[in-house]
Structure formats: structure tokens, C-alpha cells
Design brief:
Elements: H1 3-30, H2 53-67, H3 72-86, H4 95-115, E1 120-121, E2 126-127, H5 130-165, H6 169-202, H7 206-217, H8 239-253, E3 270-271, E4 274-275, H9 294-310, E5 315-322, E6 326-333, H10 339-343, H11 346-352, E7 358-361, E8 370-375, H12 384-388, E9 401-407, E10 412-416, E11 423-426, H13 433-447, E12 453-458, H14 482-505, H15 511-518, H16 523-538, E13 553-558, H17 561-582, E14 588-594, H18 604-609, E15 612-615, H19 621-628, E16 641-645, E17 653-656, H20 662-675, H21 682-689, H22 711-718, E18 723-724, H23 726-733, H24 737-749, E19 762-763
Parallel strand pairs: 11-14, 11-15, 12-13, 13-14
Antiparallel strand pairs: 1-2, 3-4, 5-6, 6-8, 7-8, 9-10, 9-17, 15-16, 16-17, 18-19
Helix pairs in contact: 1-2, 1-3, 2-5, 4-5, 6-7, 14-17, 14-21, 21-24, 23-24
Amino acid sequence: MNLKRFSDLRNDIVSIIWLFLSLALGLSLYSYNPNDPSWNSLGTQSGPKNWCGYFGSFSSDFLYQFFGMSSWVFVIFLFIMSYKVLQKKSEGQKIKKQIWLIFLLISSATLAEIYFNQVRFHQGMVSVGGTIGSFLSLLLTKGLNQYGATLFLSGFIVICVLSVTDWDLLQGINRSHFFGKVLFVKLQEFFLSALRKCLDFVGGTSRKTISRVRSTQIPTIFNNDPAPFNEEPTPEYNYEEDIEVEEETEETHRAPKKRRVKMKKVVQRKIANWKLPEIKMLEDPPASRYRVDQAEVQKKSLILVDKLSQFSVKGEVKGAKPGPAVTMFEFKPEAHVKISKITELADDLSLALSSESVRIIAPIPGRDVVGIETSNAKRETVYLKDIIANDDFWSDDVKLPMALGREANGTPKVVDLRKMPHLLVAGTTGSGKSVFVVCSLTGLLFRHSPKTLRLILIDPKQVDLSTFNDIPHLLMPTICEPKKAVGALKWAVKEMEKRYRSMSKFGSRGLEAFNSKVGDFDKEKVAQHQAFNEELEQQNRHNESYYFTPQPYIVVVVEEFGDLMAVDKANVEQLVVRLAQMARASGIHLILAMQSPRKDVVTGLIKTNIPGRISFKVASKMDSRIILDESGGERLLARGDMLFLAPGVAKPIRHHGPWVTEDEIGSVMDYWSAQGEPEYNETAIKMTSTSSGSVGAAGFDEDQEEYDDKYDEIVAWTSSMKEVSASLIQRKFRIGYPRAARLIETMEREGVIGPANGSKPRQVLVNSYEERA
């Protein structure tokens, strides 16, 4: 017997024990007789009359005497325990829930005793609240009076219910409202059903009357405006069909039930002064997932075998794997059948199966079968919250997790961008490419604070990444001009070179090893390295400076890579290839997204150095071959259907990407924006603002800048300060950050402020300053 079977058998046995205890206790309480032997009575010589014998007589007497009629809660509790063990949900049950359940029982018994203390059961031997309820009710009413005790106990009962059920207060109110609606609808259906039967018994005119009753006199709770009165009888009226329409309308208006997603893994959310967001900011998926009907799978299997046999392709379907968007049939052809003959029949199979798309994997790697993927009649939406709540997303081995979605068979998939280490993404309009990029960034923000992750966002379309404008993870404002994007890539190359100098100085082969080593430095050692770097800056030896503190990962996201290549192909290709070749060890990673993967956009050098590829639906086979090195991308579905080619894998694997709403994204962005403003890198700002001119070795514009009309006013204000930064000037005078950064540089050249000191504000060197007339 293997371990899994032993575990299942153990759960089944424990579940049966709880169930029979629940039934035994229920029968004992139901058949209680005060004359039976118990803790308070020796009973009669004929023995107990309780249905469960001495066990029943003693247990029921004990519960009734202490808890009164509230003892029936124990029966419900034991039944729930049986169900939870059967569902394998009892491992995480904590003792505190059982304590809250006891509190709920006692408070309910006390409240019942306050109002029904005169009611007695079982020949006057059992009260409503029992001994405990009677004692506590006297104590509370003496101190709080009747209504005060009622308010106190009612509030405590609500707290107990929320603690036992893990509901929040709003969810409990919504469920109560929902159950009230359901009860009203069921009573209405019962009344209509009884009325129909009576009218059918009276005569044939009943159907017309029923229509009038339903449309005018009994409007449903979901429709406040009554339907117009129908004066003419409907020919060949079928009231059974009308009942189905009515029920469907109620389901349409009824609020969909949600499945509450919880994280099983406990994670550290407080990082330095930052606090990571919680997944409750994301929307819960529906309570019930869409499942492909087995009858539909069997029917398609028969059609598949029959259609292939018409083209002399004999074989049999060995299995089927339904997923969120497609179902993959495993077809094993006979020995004499050529694989190439099957791949040519994709369009014929799509027609026979009435499928939007059919993709053939010939053969499945490592198997002796051919995979035939056909789209489902109804697709299931994959929610980002489901993927983020997965334990793989929070694994310590995954440094930069990306919520890829679900595989074709429904398995959640999380990949590590750190191991790829760069990614090419292609897809036409409506394919889901932009949603995937946004989901990937949102997922990273759940895992990393600005201390461990910084972002460079390039969005020429000025639409998809604009939501991330104010988060503190940004190294520079979101770039919307392709020419400035070149400057951002140049800064990334220089940052990579500086990180390599730093790792070389401290003998580290990667960013993780470097951060671990410099993270152990004491204050004295950090001060020594800081003084040495300041000396290098004063001597204008920028190319010799290095880092001596832990550095974050940097992810560069380009939403429309084709626009950059169209503006400056030579420089963009050179910079991207340089980063793709060397940036992995320094912790800098690229995500390049595009609509059309043309040859002049995805060049041979770029493809060679970026092995991670994702293709959503593309326009042609040629586009699919460019991004994936094989066809298949043109046969994908819209809205999230993708093929993912991982580094070192021969064949791409089909996935369905997650979905996230604008409200969900907005709540996460607001959460981060409330914790702090972005502190942009000054050197990066200079390089992006001067990218159209000549850029020196340190990223400074060699042309002379024009005089700024607010310079004198800002310098006058600066002289009254001890320290100043570009962000402070930006907020004070309500100007753009690039302009503030240029003013900071000008004041440094004129000796108003000191040199840069990492991310700290600059020291003001003057005491007073009069504005020029």
C-alpha cells in the first residue's frame, strides 16, 4: 500500500468515525428520557430507554444539564468535522476555532435563557440554556439589564461566527442577503407551482391566467418593474418552457458566487520600511469552475477517429486532457502512418469538430502519441489571484516569479524570469499580450518592494503601462518617446558595467552572492567605501566607481519593441544584444513585447541571445516561425491563449494567461503609491533627457544647456535649506522631474550644492543668495 493510498484510507476512517459520533449524539439527544440512568439519577431497574443505551443516557443528560437545547450544536459540529476530513481540509484546523465554537455555544445558550427561561422540555427537566446559560444570564442581566445584555451577547455571537467560519463581516452580510433572496425565490416558486396545479385542475384557461399572475401580480425580487399585461392568449402556449426561461432569468440577475482564495504559505510581508500587498486586493474567481462535459469529449473523440480514417489515417484516441481553453486528445496512429500526413489535416479536423482552432503536436516529446488540441465550446477565465496564491509563486528558489497562467491541462504555472533570463513576447491586437505584460508586472509587485526590485518601463503607445506611473519601484518616469528609450537602454548598459565592477571587486559571480557579501559589512566598512567613492566622483573618475551596498533586481519592460527598432535600429539592437549577453549575472532582465515579430525587429542576434519566448496569436506562419522557430502561433485563440518556449526546451508548451481587471491593478498601484513616491536615478534622467544629443562617458550632455527662467528663484530657496534633491524641487515648484534634474546639475556646476551622494539628498554649500534683477 503506497503512502497516498494509506493517507486517503486514514482520512476515510476518521471521517466515518466523526459521522457516526454525530449520528449517535443526535439519536441520544432526541431519545433523551429523564428517568434513564445518568449522572443525576440511578434510573429504573429495567435499564435505559435511550436509543443509544448507557452512552446515550449519560451523554445527553450531561449536555442538556449544562448547555440546554443548545447541545444540538455539537451534533452539527461533529458532522462538519466529518465533511472536512473527507475533503482533506482538516490538517490546518487550529484549536482556537474549537474554542470559539464553545464560546458561540455558551453565548447562544445564555441569550436563549434570557428570553425563554420559562420554557422547559422533557418533563420540565431541561431548560433552554442549561446550567451555564442560566448562571451567565443572571450575571449579565444584573449588571447590564436585559437589553444591555442582549446587545453584548449579540455582538459576541457575531464575533464567534466570523472566527469559526473565516468570513469577513461584509462577506457575512452578503451571504445573509443572498440566502434571503434564495428563500424568497423558492417560496415564490412553490406558490406558483401550487397555483399552476390548481388552475390546471380547473380548466384549460389556466395557462393564460398563470401568465398574467407571473407578469403583473408576482414580480420577482430581481425585477422592480412589472412586465406589461398580456391581453391576448399566446397560441400553443407551453408553460413548462416558460418555467425554464423564468429560472434562467433569475440566475442571470443573481449575483455570482465567489470562491475565496487563500494563501497556504506564510510569507514575510514587511521588508525594511515597505509592506507587501495582500492578495485580497485581487478579485476572487467564481465558486464553480467550468468543466468540459465528458459526453462532449467522447463525442469529439469519435469524430476525430472517423475523420482521420477518411484520409487513411488509422489509429485510436488514448486519452484526453481538458483545460481552461482547449482539450488535447492523445491520438496513437498505426505503425504505417506518416506523421507528416496528420499535420496536414488541421483545417479538415477543425471543420469536422466545429472548432475555432485545431493545433497538432506531432509527436508529443517523449511519447508515442500525437497531440491534437481543439478549442472548448466554452472557455474558462484564469484569474491572477489563483496563480499568485500558489506556493510556487512564493518559493525561495524563484527570485522573479512570473504568473504564466495555466497549462493546457489546467495546472497552474509560475516561471522565474531570473533563470530565463530575458523574454520576447509577440501577439496581435486582442491576443492578450498587453494583459500578460501587465499581469507579470503586477505579480512582481506582490513579491518585491522597491528595495529588491526596480523597474524601467518603456511604452510608446502611452496606454498599457501608464497605470504604473507613480509607484516607488520606478528608476525613471515611464518613457513614451522612442528616442528617450535609447538613453534608458544606454543607462542600463552602464549600470550593468558598474555592477560587474562591483562584483569583481568583492569576488562575487552573481548579484545574489554580491548582496550577501556586502550586506554583512559593518558601518565602519561602509563608511570607508563611501569616502573612497566620493573621492572618485570628485576626481571625475566615474568609470571606476562601484557599489558597496546590496542592489535590487532591475527589469526593463518594452511594450512596443518594434517602434524602437523603427526609430534607431542600429543603436537599439546593439544595446539590447549587449544586455542580453551579459546582464543576467548583474540582475538586469529584459521583457520585449511586440505586435508583429518581423525579421527587421526580431533579428538573428536578438533571437540568439534571448531564448525565452512567448507567442500569443500572431497573423501568419512566418510570424510564428520568427518568434518560436516553428509554426503554431497562428492557430492560437484570442484573449490569453499562448505558446511558451522555455530555454533548453525543444517544443513550446501551450498555456492560458491570467486575467486582471483595471480596478485590481489600480488598487495595487494605489497601495504602493501611498507608501512612498518614486525616487528616480539622476544619472538615468540625464541620459534619457539628453539622448538626442551627444552623450559622454558618464552620461552627461556635452552641449551647453539653456538658461532656465526659474533658476534664480529655485537657487534662492535652495540657499535657505541644508539639503536638497531633484524630487524635492519637483514637488515644491511643481515642475517636471527632467527639468528639476537639469537645475540640480546646473547648481552643482556653479558650486551651489555638493556632488551626488548615492540616493541621499545633496548638501547645500551656500548660506544666502539674492535673485538677479
